[in-house]
Design a protein that fits this description.
36% of the residues lie in helices and 20% in strands. It has 13 helices and 16 strands. It is globular.
């Protein structure tokens, strides 16, 4: 089986779409008689071929690129040798290329992976994304299967009409996490340390992560408690967030760690008492970081958004909070700050849930079964 994964971003760029393609490819590369090649735009705009953990990554020079969108017409003569093309959507500029290719070739089969709606785009980006949105109906018809991380998200998404018209075409496939890498660490010696952790991009493409909301919530927390807010990630908005922390008078409580390698990231999770994902809109559809935190035995607080709210159970592994409501977010953090026994109970529940539902090996096996079912149609 020869599989092409097509994705707008890929590690080392931080982002859930690229991370999911990475994890899928890592799993599939271990399977016999499965060959995986990832196609993604080249960050330096020079064609590069890499071998990574058993699979190949083709970073292609883009003919036209803006933000995370790119026009890669090279795929027109690359894709015909594959059994399955797994297109991670949105990918403005290249989704159209794949759709045009499928007009002339029945093989390979198309698996369309709908990750999220894209909202709040600048005017120019909105204009450039228009062709892709207009062609989505055709792309949907060409796809053998449409994957999504949760039906909860799809039912309220921009493509909900397609779901309700052809439910049998949709398959729910949540993301998974490596339980051997992301696991609980040793108990902290200093019981007064209460690390609040955020992990995410701090660039304008990730404006929706709600870091400003988290900072305002932190400013309202009691100053006589031993809490710290740890922010992992980097980007062009970091300086703005640092200035906001200074204006709020909490700079000494906020630690910006920048980008971390995997070992450092796991260490940050293990030292956290609570993980917060305060996203503000539907650009957040799931939150792989929630799985990583819970796998490390950390309770989570996340915005009550479609898709995100399906990852864990409110009141058991963590709390849901109203989007953009920094007082509600502050109250949920403060509750765990003042209730260590409840925090520990939620931490145990979090690890248990991930082991039962989000083991990446099981997710990978389910993906492989979906591919096989598509080829047998």
């Amino acid at each position: 089986m020869k599989i092409a994964q097509i994705v707008c971003v890929f590690p080392p760029y931080a982002g859930g779409i690229g991370r999911s393609a990475w994890e899928f490819s890592r799993f599939l590369a271990k399977e016999r008689e499965v060959e995986v090649i990832v196609y993604t735009p080249a960050y330096n705009n020079k064609d590069v071929l890499e071998n990574i953990e058993g699979f190949k990554v083709r970073r292609l020079k883009s003919w036209l690129k803006y933000g995370n969108g790119a026009f890669l017409p090279q795929l027109l003569w690359e894709l015909k040798n594959y059994d399955i093309v797994h297109l991670h959507y949105p990918f403005f500029g290249t989704a159209e290329v794949v759709s045009f290719f499928k007009l002339f070739f029945k093989k390979p089969k198309l698996v369309l992976h709908y990750h999220m709606d894209v909202i709040g785009l600048p005017p120019l980006v909105r204009l450039l994304s228009l062709p892709s949105k207009l062609m989505f109906k055709l792309l949907f018809r060409q796809a053998s299967i449409v994957l999504c991380s949760s039906f909860d998200y799809i039912k309220t998404s921009q493509i909900k009409k397609y779901y309700y018209s052809e439910k049998e075409k949709f398959k729910e496939l949540p993301f998974g996490v490596d339980l051997d890498i992301f696991r609980p660490g040793e108990e902290l010696n200093n019981k007064d340390d209460f690390n609040i952790l955020f992990v995410g991009g701090l660039d304008r493409a990730h404006y929706f992560k709600g870091v400003d909301v988290l900072l305002r919530a932190a400013a309202m927390l009691p100053q006589d408690k031993g809490w710290r807010l740890i922010i992992v990630g980097d980007g062009d908005l970091r300086k703005e967030y640092e200035r906001q922390a200074a204006r709020l008078g909490i700079s000494k409580r906020i630690i910006f760690l920048g980008k971390l390698n995997q070992k450092e990231l796991v260490d940050a999770y293990q030292k956290a008492k609570v993980f917060v994902l305060p996203s503000i809109n539907k650009n957040e559809a799931f939150g792989i970081v929630l799985l990583e935190a819970m796998a490390c035995g950390v309770p989570v607080i996340a915005s009550d958004l479609a898709g995100v709210r399906s990852v864990f159970r409110n009141g058991r592994e963590g709390f849901l909070t109203r989007p953009e409501n920094y007082k509600d977010l502050k109250d949920k953090i403060e509750f765990l700050l003042n209730n260590p026994l409840k925090q520990k109970q939620m931490a145990d529940n979090a690890r248990k849930l991930v082991c039962e539902k989000y083991n990446k090996e099981n997710i990978g096996k389910n993906l492989l079964k979906i591919y096989e079912s598509v080829l047998n149609k």
